[in-house]
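seq:
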Amino acid sequence: MVNGPEDVTLAWEAVNWPYHEENVRRLRQRIFKAAQEGDLARVRNLQKLMLHSWSNTLISVRQATQRNAGRKTAGVDGQVALTPEARMALAVRVHRDASSWRPRPVKRVYIPKAGNRAKLRPLGIPVIADRCHQGRVRAALEPEWEARFEPKSYGFRPGRGCHDAIAAIYTVCRGPRAKRVWALDADLAAAFDKIEHARLLEALGSFPAREMIRDWLGAGVIEAGKGFAPTAEGTPQGGVISPLLLNVALHGLEEAAGVRYRITGSNAGETLPGSPVVVRYADDMVALCYTKEQAEQVKVRLAAWLAPRGLVFNEDKTRIVPLSRGFDFLGFNVRRYGAKLLIKPSTAAVKRIRERLRTQIHALRGSNAAAVIADLNPLIRGWTAYYRGVVSKKTFSDLDDYMWKLTYKWVVFSHANKPKRWAVARYFGKFNKFRNDRWCSATPRTAPIWSNSPGPTSSATSWSRAGRLPTTPRWPRTGPNGDGGSSPHWTDTRCACSPGRTAAARCAGMNCSQPSSHRSPQTSGKAGGWGSSAGR
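struct:
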């Protein structure tokens, strides 16, 4: 539907969402196909159709006001849309002002960095209407660039995630015959804040909403205590369209690094022998090279390519290392042990999850057991879901023991005047019949939280192969070629994020939920996990 909402019922609850989602999906697919065929005129016509689509407006408003985690956060105008009536009114206003809208400044706030919470990361929060407009524009721009983006770019792209990037590294570096045994582990300094506007707008070409993107880039920021400040460079982190603009700005990085692919024959798409392999996730990248000299040459070429775009390497985080020493990437440690490549959770990631567990359970002193378990389960499940596809057996075992110590201390603190035997008998026991473990945690005098029968308070998960009874191990045993053997989630899993997944799964675009903090995961929400066990 293109011609506005005059002929439809303006009731948010009455919207036929599958119908509008299908309209947007079909139009995005047509833009993607036209871009693949090189028909630029058709691409532009379809993009104009998308920008004027009522279906696109509705989907964008729902994403910004109903689904996003930041839906309750207002911009500089203080407005949010949390009721059905407010959402429909916003959708009508956004659709009506699609051609005449002028972006507003963003609100500048600071959040702790995931890797170092002592440092702060600037975040720009657009007003709610700008978020909806950015969603509309992204729906039109993204399919065109998805047809053009380089094959080993994985950050902020539909159907791709951190595990795909790790799988690409594993494929290149595994086995005793691997030739690329040196790595340039690189990070861009303040990439979002330093993007050169002129270069970015030049790359967008004749995109119909190019002028609106120009206005977003130059809208400025308003910071408490400092007032308004113009933005001559960069795109604010926190904008709906900012990750896509970063990918557009970095398009061509593989070619600049000297990566070459076969373009014909049955092996089309494979990297040519002698060429480095560059795996990029947003502003983090790894160049896998044959020799140290080749890695140094790649670094020099990339530095020269990045300079006109306003970007430079963060020298504190950029280094050239042999795979025998290893490197950290997206929260994983990648290292060769002799002829075998092992990928494990990084030491920094384990340290962060320990600190967060300790802080969280300390803050829950005085709460009941059900509240503690309900608060910790999403964190535990998300972290283990992220790392279950690599060599994590020892890490999970160590964390299982650490989690038991934390819960035991919580129990003793909660009942300081009771004997320890009484506290242990009240909170621990062999509640899971599939585990020979008497240290499973549960709420006192109620059905065990870790019971195997899903219910209102159950956290039952299945880590086993299909056809077996569901189990809730303390920590999943996982890892390619690791101590725990070959996990089904590494070999024959249906998840498209896991290394070794089939091409059909990749085409289907199935994805594990990504942790809320990429590069250093701490939680990913509701994915199945480490065992809902706080047991020893």
